[in-house]
Amino acid sequence: MAASRTRHLCTVAVALALAVAGPAALASARSAAPDGLREVLFVGNNWDGTADVIRSSGDYAKIGRIGVVPDKDARMAEINADPVKWIYFQAIRNSVGEGHDQFADDMYSTPDGRSVVVSRPSFADVVSIDLADGRVNWRFPVAGYRADHMAVSPDGTRVAVSASTANTVHVLDIATGRQLGSFKTGDKPHENVFSKDGKYIWNMSIGDVNTDLDGPGWDWTKGDRHITVVDATTFRQVEVIDMRQRLDAFGLKDFSDAVRPAVFSPDESKLYFQVSFFNGFFEYDVTTDKITRMKTLPKNPATGEDRTAWVNDSRHHGISMNPAGTRLCVAGTMDDYATVVDRASLQEGPLIPAAKPYWATVSGDGKDCVVSESGADQVTAIDFATGRKVASIAVGDHPQRVRLGHVRADWSGPDGS
User: Among 89, 216, 234, 394, which lies 20 to 30 A Cα-Cα from 36?
Assistant: First the structure.
């Protein structure tokens, strides 16, 4: 009961603050860059170990590229010298990597725009890369054998990273890589989200997504999957939310309870989330602790119904919301499209063809949804207002996470390249 009251009070406080600020002020704050810095989008090319840096809005033109595995030879020497690390390295390549190494899962820039922090699944670490010379500033090996999704605090000083095989989230000082704390999660922690006031971290664990026991009757074999909410200062658990109970109450006993990408409404009263195997998303009311709505999106007739062929138990993987909170953008990963959905009516717009879109984020000016097309090695921008495609930009091999960040105003790549 105390945890529920704490969460409710936090939600009310944030809602009041946002009501005072208003959507226009929020959009203005979102697009403003500190003096001497330029807002950009970082596109992590997971399979080739690079990140493309593009304009955060407008024509999304490419500004530069960085390598995120400059220490690859040293890391491979360590892996080859340790039989257990070698086995996990190969397992990552042949399971979640779809036959490829995973070198760039998630990334955020430092507040001063001088470095970018990257989680590298195959190397089980987080590194800070100097944007001026491309060298490693610091390295943090995570617990276990794989690093995954990250989140950055609203003030940009802390980064949370999921150590997926250790059921742990580490919280690091983004400038030094020093661990500030950690907390335990359900099986295979995945997505992390900071509350807007920076006081709480929400982690979503997805369980084992690499087995072939994908039928609804075998869902229980996937592990302990739940949302863990912790205090971002003490790292003590505030609440555990098991969507199994909420889905059952909604009449969906055959649905997976593995919460995948998720996004809060601007006042944090609602959480919109995807689950494994489902072509759509759910609306969860934070205060009443209930699933309130479900949106089923169209299936692509060309997508087979063999769940074992869907990448890492995904059907749709990637969801974002415009700053005004009126539109959602969904990446229909296995159905090869992206679409904008009206939040009030839940009516989808045009289905924009996209090759295995893996993520959805919001442009710097808040006007567009930007999805990563991992199957076409490009990112595509879609207008939130019209649902129409704005632009596509070629990037590196298998883009996944796309994150807003900053670089120095005159930056064009390491050493000016």
Answer: 394
